[in-house]
Amino acid sequence: MTLSNELVLDATNISVQFGGLLAVNDVSFNIPKKSVVSLIGPNGAGKTTFFNVLTGLYKPSEGKVMFGDREITDLPPHKIASIGLARTFQNIRLFGLMTAEENLMVAMHSHLKSGIASTILRTPRQRKEEKEALDTAREILDFVGIGKWASEYARNLSYGDQRRLEVARALALKPEILLLDEPTAGMNPQESGVFVDFVHRVRDARDVAILLIEHDMSVVMSVSERITVLDRGEKIAEGSPEEIRSNQRVIEAYLGKAASEGRGK
Amino acid sequence: MATRAARKAKKAAKQPVSHRTWALGYLAVAAVMFAVYQYALPWEGLPLPIYDFLQLWLPPSSVNEALVYVICALGLNIVVGYAGLLDLGYVAFWAIGGYSAGWFMSNFFEQWKFHGLSSVATTEPGLHINFWLVLVIGGAVCAFFGVVIGAPTLRLKSDYLALVTLGFGEIIPQIFFNGENINGFNLSNGTKGITRLDPIPTGVKDLGPFDFGSKFVVFVLLAAIMVFISLQLRRGRLGRAWLAIREDELAASMMGVPLMRTKLASYAVGAVAGGIGGVAFATHVDGVYAERFNFSISIFLLAMVVLGGMGNVWGVILGAFILAWVNSTGLPALGDTFNSQFGTEVDFPSFTFLLFGLVLILMILFKREGLIPESRLRLVLHEGDADEELKPAHEEEK
Fold first, then answer.
1. Domains in chain A and their CATH numbers?
2. Residues of B in Cβ contact (< 8 Å) with A115
3. Residue B4 CB neighbours (<10 A)
4. To pair with B232 at 20 to 30 A between CA atoms, which of A79, A182, B186, B347?
């Protein structure tokens, strides 16, 4: 698995400070086109903070984020989402009282054009736009395998289907990068296995790069082409799964120094 | 379990009476009432008891007033019911709409003279613009103020938003209340108000303050337009974004929905309805009086939306009609009947707010989704107690 040299996202020297706490310290990170990369680290390592910088929820105190040729560091979240950075949430945040297809159509909001007047008057263009949006939504739902629940309220779906719907909703933004925040949380090993295939299928069929934050090491190791490890806000390692598996600092960070030394003996 | 939940959800989603049926019902009721007011009431052959009954319990003026409340409540429903923004200052838009009518449809500004398609004699001083144009102007002015007030306000969340809107709901009527002499300029005529408004031109005849039957038709039409606008917007791009914001603001913004713009749109559309309601109310009472635009109107309208069913236009119509009617006619009429029956002297109308408070508490306790709930909400609010099984398994972990 060789990674493309072309970067779709390039974050350089990102620092985030919350009062006296340096949550992320001078981290540089990039995402090659159509790659599957992961961000791991023990609890409190700054993964989610970093994630929130990429999606525009936090502004970094230093550093900048480039999306292709465009700087997105200071853009508001909805702008970043609409130009092609879509995310899912660790604790599912679907629009529960909206149907699956409506959930997807909300995500298409920034790609649709009809305004107040054309919506009230139902102009032919508005109707056409709505119909196309609905078709796209159904197509994406079919793609993630929950097409039969298209007109079901999101809150009524099973847990696994809700996870799928979250991915589908993110895909409806037509993103170039898909950020998955602990997507296998709450899944059993078998479901996680299915998920690994699903991630690759999404990447190949939808032409997106995928960034994962994940705790389940078996998932991370089998799905990622490159892994970046954060610990206490700093990047301590980056490389292929094999490299990371044998990296001394990573083992220290996860298991503590004594354990890693014991292992060395 | 999943299939059962699914089936029940499908039933809740698809079974409710369709909007078409509701609309036809609305028009049918309106037609019957119009026939009664226009033909039956003036008819000499009408038996006296029926005549008295109608005049006591359902006088045309109270029905028209209720319709004005319906128009405004429909606007508030867009803000509160659709987008989930608690607005406690809605009366501001009602006032602005009312004064638009006062300014553009009376002799008030004697220093100027302008006639815009008005049916008033051209010798009259003041600004006289056609009622239908004033509706548009009032709506536009309110939309403008909606954006002006909303831009700084809507950045706040829930309780804070409610408090600041409350503030604006006090400020705007106060400006009119004290606007008799702003550097020598009389903006609002202060407490004396602006009175004698132009009649409503219809092409056939001009409707003065006492043409209840014909004005009833005008108000029914305005309310119908608001219903139409609400429903069309709800089932479109903007309506989905409002709902998404109501459901989860953060997730909505992460899905590319611009929060400020979308909230402002709901606020502005709601304000337009308030403006139209204000113009209608001004023609109904043939004047604008600053002291009528007080805080209790905002609460009153909110109670209508909650009672009827937040987010469901038909519920809101029913809620608004019932509360407005109880307030203007129901209680006084009940009081008259009661007192003359038992020879007592209980002042029923003074119990208005006691009654409304009670209604709100009972609604919150037993029927939170309102009289005619939005189908989506019915799903949530009644699944817990009715059927444990409906709860998705993972929800229980929370």
1. 1-84+175-265 (3.40.50.300), 97-173 (no CATH)
2. 238
3. 11
4. A79
CB contact under 8 A, B240 and A77: no
Task: Show the beta-strand stretches assigned E in chain B.
Answer: 113-116, 126-129, 194-195, 200-201, 206-207, 287-288
8 A C-beta contact, residue A116 and residue B269: yes
User: CA B367, CA A75: separation in Å to the nearest integer?
Assistant: 43
Residue (of B255, B243, B302) closest to B274 by Cα position: B302
Interface test with chain B among A106, A127, A151, by most B beta carbons within 10 Å: A106
- B87-146 pLDDT, tens per residue? 999 999 999 999 999 999 999 998 888 888 888 888 888 899 999 999 999 999 999 999
Alpha-carbon distance A190 to A59, whole Å? 38
Q: Which of B5, B252, B254 sits opposite A55 (nearest CB)?
A: B254
| pLDDT one digit per residue (tens) for chain A, 265 residues | 567 678 999 999 999 999 888 999 999 999 999 999 999 988 888 898 999 999 999 999 999 999 999 999 999 999 999 999 999 998 999 999 999 999 999 999 999 999 999 999 999 999 999 999 999 999 999 999 999 999 999 999 998 899 999 999 999 999 999 999 998 888 888 888 888 899 999 999 999 999 999 888 888 999 999 999 999 999 999 999 999 988 888 888 887 776 666 554 4
Pairing of strands B194-195, B113-116: unpaired
Beta-strand pair B206-207/B200-201: antiparallel
- Residue partners of B222: CB distance under 8 A and separation at least 6: B67, B71, B135, B276, B280
A89 contacts chain B (CB < 8 A): yes
In eight-state DSSP terms, residue A73 is T
Amino acid at the residue B149: I
Q: State the nearest Cα–Cα gap between A248 and chain B, in angstroms.
A: 37
- Which chain B residue has the Cα nearest residue A89? B251
The pLDDT tens digits of the residues spanning A212-239 come to: 998 888 889 999 999 999 999 999 999 9
A134 touches B: beta carbon within 8 Å:
no
Contacts of A122 in chain B (CB under 8 A): 232
Quickly tell me which residue has 């444990």 as its tokens.
Answer: B388
CB within 8 Å: A126 and B236: yes
Residues shown for chain B = 398
CA–CA separation, B182 and B184 (whole Å): 5
ipTM of the complex: 0.91
Largest CA distance in chain A: 77
Choose among B237, B250, B379: nearest Cβ to A114: B237
Residues of A in contact with B394 (CB under 8 A): 159, 162, 186
Tell me the shortest Cα–Cα distance from A240 to chain B, in angstroms.
Answer: 30
Whether A243 is catalytic is no
Q: Does the beta-carbon distance from B250 to A106 stay under 8 Å?
A: no
